[in-house]
Amino acid sequence: MLVPGKILLDHAFKNGYAVGAFNANNMEQVQAITDAAAETQSPVFIQVSRGALTYSRMTYLRNIILAAAEEHPEIPIAMHLDHGSDLELVKKSIDLGFTSVMIDGSLDPTGKRALTFEENLEVTKSVVDYARPFGVSVEAELGTIGGVEDEAGVSEIHYTDPDQALDFVKQAAPDSLAIAIGTSHGAVKFEGECILKHDLLEELHKKLPNTPLVMHGSSSVPQELVVVVNKYGGNMPGAKGVDIEQLQQTLGHGVSKINVDTDGRIAVTGAIRKVLMENPEEFDPRKYMGPARDALMEVVKARMIQFKTAGNAPKIEQITLEQAKELYS
Ligand SMILES: [Zn+2]
Question: How many whole angstroms from 178 Cα to the centroid of ligand 1?
Fold first, then answer.
């Protein structure tokens, strides 16, 4: 069933695990993500970027996610807007029934320019004011995560400053905060070694002992999946992700939501390439979309186990959005 994102964040925060947040653009991806959640008894964020909303013409993806929620009433699912660019898009998403939104006030709506602290604060406040009466949770971002996601992004990482973060959360009061501690969007995350700043995370968690933190750009880009893509005609040189052990070390230190998109993309693409290359006569889309769905499900399941989400679906049977409005507004 669909639940407000805040319920999942708070449960993960209190229990020292992180909820995986996986991006979807189509039916097979939504099915893979929710089937993995059902199989591992995990709560889950299904996230939809601005680009995915446009691609799916606003309503299709939302209705597919509602179908998944109907199929899996036992799994708490948050329908989340990823990298919302402005209040207008947030309003549209809430109209569509999203239960959680991110306002990315680290970048301007074109995704090219970093916003100032004051600009970020202003847009985040306006989103919190708008969303809270609906019981919809708000994720903000401070600092910029490197790499490019869905055409939005800057190349450098600006690490989140702990004092600024405290000031920001006090003033804007988002339900969660995306932080930059060294993760990066995309398939080529690092030229050199992956180093997450655990000391910085510790400092942030100390300053914000009650705020669930979010990690973006946290795909691990497993080399065995990259090999499949490259073996069957693909070309992904230098693909490199976040070290999974370093990622796991963030658990229990305030990190309550971890975003994974690239890993799923690679799994899907590899599976499709393999089928088509091995079976050039094949032209039934189900014959390659089916294996793509299976491959994605395996990746999502693995992350749910690694993030300690598995087995942690909170007992939230009867918390509806109506009740959430009363709880959180
Ligand atoms: Zn992101």
Answer: 9
Report the separation in Å between the CA atom of 4 and the middle of ligand 1, taken as the mean of its atom positions. 20
Give the E-state strand segments of 13-122 in sequence order.
Answer: 19-23, 44-49, 77-84, 100-103
Catalytic (active site) residue 82: yes
Give yes or no for a contact between 260 and 22, defined as CB atoms under 8 angstroms apart.
Answer: yes
Using CA atoms, how far residue 298 sits from 37, 73, 156, 222, 260, in Å, is 11, 21, 32, 12, 13
pLDDT (tens, 9 = 90+) of the chain, 329 residues, equals 999 999 999 999 999 999 999 999 999 999 999 999 999 999 999 999 999 999 999 899 999 999 999 999 999 999 999 999 999 999 999 999 999 999 998 888 777 778 899 999 999 999 999 999 999 999 999 988 877 655 555 666 789 999 999 999 999 999 999 999 999 899 888 877 888 999 999 999 999 999 999 999 999 999 999 999 999 999 999 899 999 999 999 999 999 999 999 999 999 999 999 999 999 999 999 999 999 999 999 999 999 999 999 998 776 655 555 655 555 55
Distance 277 CA to ligand 1 centre (A): 32
Q: Which of 82, 108, 161, 261 is catalytic?
A: 82
Domains annotated on the chain, with CATH: 5-328 (3.20.20.70)
What is the amino acid identity at position 262? Answer: T
